[in-house]
Amino acid sequence: MAATSNLPPGLEGNYLETSTGGDAAWLPISVKKWYTNAFIVHEAVDPTTPGKILLGYKKRGFGAHLYNGFGGKVEPGETPAQAAARELKEECGVEAPLQHCGSLLFVSQSGPEWAFQIEVYRADEYTGALIETDEMRPQWFSTTPASTDAPAPADQGEEELLPIPYDTMWPDDVYWIPLLLSKTPFIGRADFEIDATGKYSMKRWWFGVPPS
Length: 212
Ligand SMILES: CNc1ncnc2c1ncn2[C@@H]1O[C@H](COP(=O)(O)OP(=O)(O)OP(=O)(O)O)[C@@H](O)[C@H]1O
Prior knowledge:
Strands 1, 2, 3, 4, 5, 6, 7, 8 and 9 form a 9-stranded mixed β-sheet that branches. The longest helix is centred in the middle third of the chain and has 13 residues, at 80-92. By secondary structure, the chain is mainly beta. The protein has helices at residues 80-92, 173-181; strands spanning 16-21, 31-42, 52-58, 67-68, 99-109, 114-123, 136-142, 186-194, 200-209. It has a single domain (29-145, 159-197), classed as Nucleoside Triphosphate Pyrophosphohydrolase (Alpha-Beta Complex), CATH 3.90.79.10. The site of N6-Methyladenosine 5'-triphosphate (N6E) has 15 residues, from strand 2 and strand 6.
């Protein structure tokens, strides 16, 4: 992993680059707004009980028709941790001992005029009953990468889970979800361009982790 001299503007600290790309100039940041994003991850127990991650299919609003964690804006007077717990409960009905695991900065050209500062949380467990809400349809996905020589799914009445649907997620997710799964703290920034159809594409990105 490379040294941190190329940390993008808006990120601070001692971090080692895990991935970077794009050659656009970093966009200027005027205002930042705080958001949260929370994930429940069940670790693999053994080969017949693989790991799984809870995502939500966003039914409306910003990021509609993409799978994501559960989250939203930090409201005035709330800490990001309080907002993360509130949004998780509002969007899929459950409570969880969320732990902060990453911070992300997203800037877009010709989209929202503010930058998104997103605090990311994960929990190994949850309490309550998962429900579909007006905003999100929760769904579990396998955390085991798809592989041709993987054993056939156990035929034990368990529903086979699909792999994480990166093609139907924000394009930055593939760079930091693996870090979230391995419980590696992370930071990152991605700058986006939005085309006439509203599609976001990444023009420059950088993700990193603390030195071990
Ligand atoms: C650009 N790359 C990105 N990659 C991954 N996740 C991203 C994201 N950009 C935004 N997000 C997440 O999208 C949700 C938006 O929140 P959003 O639904 O607008 O907030 P909130 O529920 O408060 O809105 P309403 O007031 O109900 O409209 C929130 O979880 C935020 O973390």
